[in-house]
Design brief:
Length: 596
C-alpha cells in the first residue's frame, strides 16, 4: 500500500476566528503545522461575550511559531469582519481559508431571554460569520479560490432547552452556508458546515464525564482541515464530527400526500387534511433534495400527475415470475393440465400472467392504507367488518411478466345501504414508463357503517353488473379446490386471517376459515380464458364480478358461461351446496380464441 500524499497548505492563508481557545485553537495549530500562514483571531472575552483580551490570540500565535509555523494575531470581534480579513491581507497579501468558529453562549429559556441575550449571540455567530465572509469574498473571487467553514450546532439542528437564541443563530448559519455554496460555486469558492461536539469551556457544564473526556477538539480539527483542502470537492455539505467520528448530515423530505384529485379542486377541507395526515408525516420514503430547483421540480411532477389523473394514495408493487406462478397455483392452475404450463413455468415460450393477478396492486393498496376508512370518517373499518362486494379489472396495456407498478388509489363513490356502507375505490396502476397498465375498481361493504344519511345509488362511472342471460349456459367448467387452497392463495398477498385462522374466522361469524372471494374469481377468469380464449391472456380485456356468498376450501366450483360476441357472461356456484358465489359477472375479450 502506498502512502497517501500529505495534505499540505503551503502558500495558503487561513483565518480562524475564535482561535484563542477550544476548537479554533486546534484548527489554527493544525493549519500552522501543515504550511499555512494563520491569522489567529480572538476577541478574548468571557464566553458570555463580555470583555476582551489580547492574551488568548497571542498564546496560540506563540504556540504555532514555537512549532515552526507562521501566524499573526487579530483581536477584533468578528462583527468587524473587514478588520479581521484586513489582517490577513496586510500580513500575507491574500486569504484562502476562512473558518468561522468564534462563539459565545447566553443560555436562557425563551421567556427569560433578553434583547441583549438574543442580539449578542446573533451578532457573534450569525452576523459575525457573514461579516468576515463578505469581507473575504472579493479576494476569493479574484483568485478564483476560497474555502469557507460555518460552524453550526446540534442545538440548532435538533433544538436544545434553554438555547433559543443560540439554536436560531446556529441553524441560521446552515441557511447562510447553503446560499454561499451556491453563489461561490462558479468561482471555486466552497462553503461547508461543521457541526462539532467538543469538550470546551462551552460544554464543560452540560456533558457527562466520560463523553466530556473523549470529546477532544483535536479529533475534529482534521475533518475541518480536509474540508478546507483544495482536493476536497464537497460544497454545501453539513458534516457532523465528534469523538473521532464524522458523518454527513442532510435534511430530508417525505413523499407527502396529494390533497387534490384534479387541478379543478379549488377547496381542500381541514378534515381531508386530517384524513391523510398519516401520509403527510410518513417519512419511510423520505429523500434529500439537492437543490431548490430539485425541490420545485418534484412539485412540478406532482402537478403533472394531478393533471393526468395520477392522484390519490400511492403505493408501489413489485412482482416477478415467482409471484405470477404462485398466484396461478393459488387459483388452481395445475401441471396436470398441459395448457396451464404457460402460467406455471417461467421458461415456457409463452410464459404469461393470469390477467386476474393484476387485482393485487389495488387490493394491497386498499388493505395497507387508510383508503377505505378515509371515506367514512367516524366509522370503524376493520378486517372483521368488511366484505368484498364487487370487483372490476380492466387491462389497458400489454401485460408484463415482471416489473414495478405505481398505483394511485382514490375513493370514487360512497353509498349508504342502511345495514352498511359501500365504498367504491378506483386504483390505477402505472408501469415504470408511466403508462397506465391496469384499472381496478372495488366495492367494499362495511357492515354497520350505514345510516349516515348518504345516497343509495351509485354515481356514473361505477361499473354496473349485468345479469347472465336467461337461457341455459353455453358451457360449464368445474374445478375442485383443495383444502389448502386459501393457505396457498393468501401467499400472493391477501393475508387476512379470516382465510386461515379458525378463531379469527369465528369472530367474523364463520364456522371455519373461508376461501378468498378473489380466489374463486381467479378460478372463474381462468375458466373463461380456457374455454373461449385459448388460455391466451393477451385476449383478456376486462372482468366484473359480484361476490354473493363464501366458498369453503375443498369445495367444487362450477363456472357457467354464456358467450355473446366478445363478452362472456358467467356465474360461479358451489357444486356441493348449489349456492351461487359470483353473479352478475362477465369477461370482455379483445377477440375470440380458436375454440369458438
Ligand atoms: P470556546 O469558547 O472554547 O471558543 C470560542 C472562542 O471564540 C473563544 O476563544 C472566544 O474568546 C472567541 N470569541 C467569542 N466571541 C468572539 C468574537 N466576537 N470575536 C472573536 N472571537 C470571539 O468554544 P468552542 O467550544 O471551541 O466552540 C467553537 C465553536 O464551535 C463555536 O462557534 C461554538 O458555538 C461551536 N460549537 C461548539 C460545540 C462544542 O461542543 N464545543 C458544539 C457545537 C458548536
Amino acid at each position: 500500500m502506498s502512502m497517501p500524499t500529505a495534505l499540505r497548505y503551503d502558500g495558503k492563508v487561513a483565518v480562524i476566528t475564535g482561535a484563542g481557545a477550544g476548537l479554533g485553537r486546534e484548527y489554527a495549530l493544525l493549519f500552522g503545522s501543515r504550511g499555512a500562514s494563520v491569522v489567529v483571531n480572538d476577541l478574548g472575552g468571557s464566553f458570555h461575550g463580555e470583555g476582551a483580551s489580547q492574551r488568548a490570540a497571542d498564546v496560540v500565535v506563540d504556540e504555532i511559531r514555537a512549532l515552526g509555523g507562521t501566524a499573526v494575531a487579530n483581536y477584533n470581534s468578528v462583527v468587524d469582519g473587514d478588520k479581521v480579513i484586513q489582517t490577513a491581507i496586510d500580513n500575507f497579501g491574500r486569504i484562502d481559508i476562512l473558518v468561522n468558529n468564534a462563539g459565545i453562549l447566553r443560555d436562557k429559556s425563551v421567556a427569560k431571554t433578553s434583547d441583549l441575550d438574543w442580539n449578542l449571540v446573533h451578532d457573534v455567530h450569525l452576523k459575525g460569520s457573514f461579516m468576515t465572509t463578505r469581507a473575504a469574498w472579493p479576494y476569493f473571487k479574484k483568485q478564483n479560490y476560497g474555502r469557507i467553514i460555518m460552524t453550526s450546532s446540534n442545538s440548532g439542528i435538533y433544538g436544545n432547552f434553554g438555547q433559543a437564541n443560540y439554536s436560531a443563530a446556529k441553524l441560521g448559519l446552515v441557511g447562510l452556508a447553503n446560499t454561499i455554496a451556491i453563489e461561490g460555486q462558479k468561482n471555486n469558492i466552497f462553503c461547508n458546515v461543521i457541526v462539532p461536539t467538543a469538550a470546551s469551556r462551552m460544554t464543560e457544564d452540560v456533558l457527562p464525564e466520560l463523553l466530556f473526556q473523549e470529546l477532544k477538539p483535536q479529533l475534529i480539527a482534521p475533518v475541518v482541515a480536509y474540508l478546507c483542502h483544495e482536493s476536497c470537492e464537497d460544497n454545501g455539505a453539513i458534516i457532523e464530527s465528534a469523538a473521532g467520528w464524522a458523518t454527513k448530515v442532510q435534511t430530508v423530505r417525505g413523499k407527502g400526500a396529494v390533497l387534490r384529485t384534479s387541478l379543478d379542486t379549488k377547496v381542500i377541507t381541514p378534515e381531508y387534511v386530517k384524513s391523510v395526515w398519516n401520509q403527510v408525516v410518513d417519512m419511510s420514503e423520505a429523500k434529500h433534495c439537492d437543490s431548490i430547483q430539485e425541490a420545485s421540480m418534484s412539485l412540478m411532477k406532482i402537478l403533472e400527475n394531478v393533471q393526468e389523473g395520477r392522484v390519490g394514495i400511492e403505493d408501489t408493487f413489485n412482482f416477478g415470475a415467482k409471484d405470477l406462478v404462485l398466484y396461478a397455483l393459488g387459483v388452481g392452475a395445475s401441471v396436470k393440465n398441459n395448457d396451464d404450463l404457460k402460467f406455471l413455468y417461467e421458461n415456457h415460450p409463452e410464459f404469461s400472467p393470469l390477467p386476474s393477478f393484476f387485482v393485487m396492486p389495488g387490493l394491497l393498496l386498499s388493505m395497507t392504507t387508510d383508503l377505505v376508512s378515509s371515506a367514512l370518517p367516524g366509522s370503524s373499518v376493520e378486517l372483521t367488518n368488511i366484505l368484498h362486494g364487487e370487483q372490476y379489472i380492466e387491462i389497458v396495456d400489454d401485460l408484463p411478466t415482471s416489473g414495478k407498478l405505481t398505483t394511485y388509489g382514490k375513493v370514487f363513490d360512497v353509498m349508504d345501504k342502511g345495514s352498511g356502507a359501500v365504498v367504491v375505490t378506483n386504483c390505477d396502476s402505472y408501469n415504470e414508463e408511466g403508462n397506465l397498465l391496469v384499472k381496478n375498481q372495488s366495492a367494499i361493504f362495511i357492515v354497520g357503517a350505514g345510516k349516515f344519511g348518504g345516497k343509495k345509488q351509485p354515481i356514473q362511472g361505477v361499473i354496473p353488473l349485468i345479469p347472465a342471460p336467461k337461457r341455459s349456459p353455453d358451457s360449464s367448467i368445474q374445478y375442485k379446490t383443495s383444502e389448502d387452497q386459501a393457505a396457498l392463495y393468501r401467499l400472493s398477498g391477501d393475508l387476512n386471517p379470516l382465510h386461515i385462522d379458525p378463531s379469527f374466522a369465528a369472530i367474523a361469524g364463520f364456522k371455519t376459515p373461508i376461501l378468498h372471494g378473489l380466489c374463486s374469481f381467479g378460478y372463474s377468469v381462468r375458466a373463461v380464458l380456457a374455454k373461449y380464449a385459448d388460455n391466451n391472456s393477451s385476449l383478456f380485456k376486462a372482468v366484473k364480478v359480484r361476490f354473493v356468498s363464501p366458498v369453503l376450501p375443498g369445495q367444487t366450483l362450477k363456472i357457467d358461461m354464456w358467450k355473446d360476441g366478445t363478452r362472456v357472461y358467467f356465474r360461479t356456484s358451489v357444486v356441493e351446496t348449489g349456492k351461487d358465489v359470483i353473479t352478475g359477472a362477465y369477461v370482455d375479450l379483445k377477440g375470440a380464441g380458436s375454440k369458438l
